[in-house]
Amino acid sequence: MKMKFVKSCLMLAAAGLLSTSFAVAQEKAQTLDQLLDMVKKSQISESAEHKQREAEFARDKANQANLLAQAKATRQAEENRSQALEKKYAEQQLLVTQKRAQLNERLGSMRELFGHLTSTAGDLRATLETSLVSAQYPNRGDFLDALIEKMNGSTQLPDIEEIERLWYEVQREMVETGRVVKFNGTVIKPNGEQSQQEIVRIGAYNLVSNGTYLSYNSGKIEELGRQPASDMLSAASALQNASTGVVDVGIDPTGPVGGQLLAALIQKPNLREYLDQGGSVGWVIVYVGIFGILLGVWRMIVLFGMSAKVNSQLKNPANPSANNPLGRVLKVAQENKNVDVETLELKLEEAVLKERPSIESGLAILKIIAAVAPLLGLLGTVTGMITTFQAITIFGAGDPKNMAGGISAALITTVQGLLVAIPMVLMHTFVNGRAKSVIHVLDEQTTGIIAENTERK
Questions:
Q1: Which of 112, 224, 270, 416 is deepest in the core (most CB within 10 A)?
Q2: Sign of the dihedral defined by the CA atoms of residues 421, 423, 429, 433, in that order
Q3: Confidence at residue 424, expressed as pLDDT on a 0 to 100 scale
Q4: What is the pTM of this model?
Q5: Is residue 321 a contact partner of residue 313, using CB atoms and an 8 Å limit?
């Protein structure tokens, strides 16, 4: 029992030593005396460590007390300083009020003058931002911001130089709007390239350069992506090349800075863009119309030539020619002049029937095209309206631009269908009339030949 107690004590001592330090844990008590000595040393060591910690805590407590005292002193000093500043602020505020009253008293009617100058400067700033004159004289209105700020503020007053410059810029804008001048500037092409070239400014209405019209937006001079008619461009080139005299040139003074009507006109779609707006149905109508027109023109040419040959053959029936329908029919009559009347009549009817297909060729197709073209236009109208209603379903009816594509397709295909159908009807009528005229001559001549043979027999 005693040995068991000793072993337990040794295990507890070893665990205690392991928790204090690795070196001590390596030591092992061999006897009870050694174990007692090791426990004693550990207690002595812990007691010294606790005393050291207690001393450090005492020093920290003293330091914290000093810091607290310093913080209180600082707070009291700042409170005193804040009170002094508040008192000084109140005094300064009173002084500012007195000075403002004194300033208003001394300004008198000048305050009204500054109001007019502020209004004028604001209007001029808006004008200079969009004026074509600023393309030649950029950054003219930079000083206006500082001038307006001064006149609206209460700490600064505009000097006489700034007021005189305002007057000068107003006067210069008015004078430059009546001049046609040349200057060099950077022009941005539609493909993004920039080039330094000579520019002609026509007052404050238009800019032209190298036979093209330019625009001025946000300090940039850009060549219009689409230009007006060639006669206007030629006039612009003539103006740039002229040194004196009078040159006729197209000027657009519409809009706040000019050029508004020109900008709207050049946005007008051309023929190809009109056809594209009709969509696939529109292009089908176009191809059908082109085919019909070519067919009709070809048939008219053929029938004109055929009528001329038939008329020539009528003047010389004794010598039938094979290059026209009447000649071929007369030749059949000559070849069968000795047969009986019934046989001759059948032979001639057969000859006329053989000529009919070549004479009436293309008439059926022209008639079909004249009837189908309006139906294709109606088909385009229906598909365009379907597109419009789909756009309304997706985007709503708030923005008309979303519906413009479908409406344009509907209207343009309708117009295309009518533009194809109307000439086709006229062309079919004309071609049909010429064909019937030729067939009438053949019927008339065959009837005459049969009548002559009947009388002879």
A1: 416
A2: negative
A3: 94
A4: 0.55
A5: yes
